[in-house]
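Why does residue order matter? Because the sequence determines the fold. Keep that principle in mind as you read this record.
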Amino acid sequence: MTQPFSTKIGIIGGGQLGKMLIESAKPWNVEFNILEASKDCPCFEYASTFIEGSLMDDEKIKELAAISDVITYEIEHVGVETLKFLEQNGTAVIPSGSILEIIQDKGVQKQFYKDNGLATSPFIIVDSSETSQLDLSRFPGNRVVIKSCKGGYDGKGVSIMSKSDISNGKTPEVFQGRVVLENFVPEVTELSVIVARDASGDIRSFPIVEMVFDPEINLVDYLFAPSAVSNQVKDQANTLAVKAIEALNGVGIFAVELFLTKEGEVIINEIAPRPHNSGHHTIEANYTSQYEQLMRIMLNMPLGETDLITPAVMTNIIGADNVTGAYTLGGLEDLMATKGAYLHWYNKSVTKPGRKMGHFTVLDSDLDSAVQKSHDLKRMLKTQPQ
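Structure:
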């Protein structure tokens, strides 16, 4: 029997983003092949073929490509030169390796924004050994943001530091090699726009979400949609996000993370060329999820409608500070008994402090009610020793 969706998708990375991508395509019976360093990963049980190996291993990536019609990735730290080689030899890679090459290096990424007239905070790119000799008076205020050009992920490789500490050579050892120093923008509202663009240039953006970060671990604590910002700000943010993806000539799904300054300016912080934490709520809250939208692009299907069906709050479930190893989830019964609450558990065999273990989304016709329910549930949900 001929199947309507016969494309085989290869995913580099076997984490929770890949898991949710596969789940979105289960109704269509699409086959997935996975490359990951260990079988102990969220995607293992979902793979038609599982290839165990480094995400930077040229031969393993080529092995994945040989059994797949389309290649995508759910993490940025993969072998970009191999992806570019595959594209040059006819393999479809979504998003392209040339885009990933820009995104992988935060310095190159910031320079791309500047070169293309995309509003972003002032910055300089230097070697970490030179930071103590810099004249930091170009940055207003007492603090600057330092970012590793390569290797940062989920809040790692980013730090807010005082100018005096940098001038006195107190930069943490994690910041080795090229780094970005950029203006610290105080009192910002953090926004995100998920943008989808297909091979024909058709673009659909999802309604803007507002994110609240955990200041200790620099991860999203929760987000809500619709955002509370004005329609004027929403239009400004959406225009900037779409302009950025068009400048990249991007095909795929992209999360454009933005700052709204206290002066009312919208600027780009970073772009992720993949499904993103700020789009998890779309699984239940929007007509088309970010994951289904990426599937549609890879299957050459029309883009889906992105409208928000109902207000939503998405909350990350983070490993407790005092628990490492095997675990149980306390408070699960309370969440499962809450009307409009949806749990996504990432199938990670062990927990550790600060690790993303899952998320839950609460839907409610009243956003304030959804926020309150989410806060109540977060207090109850805790990873506990098994």
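The chain is about 25% helix and 30% strand.
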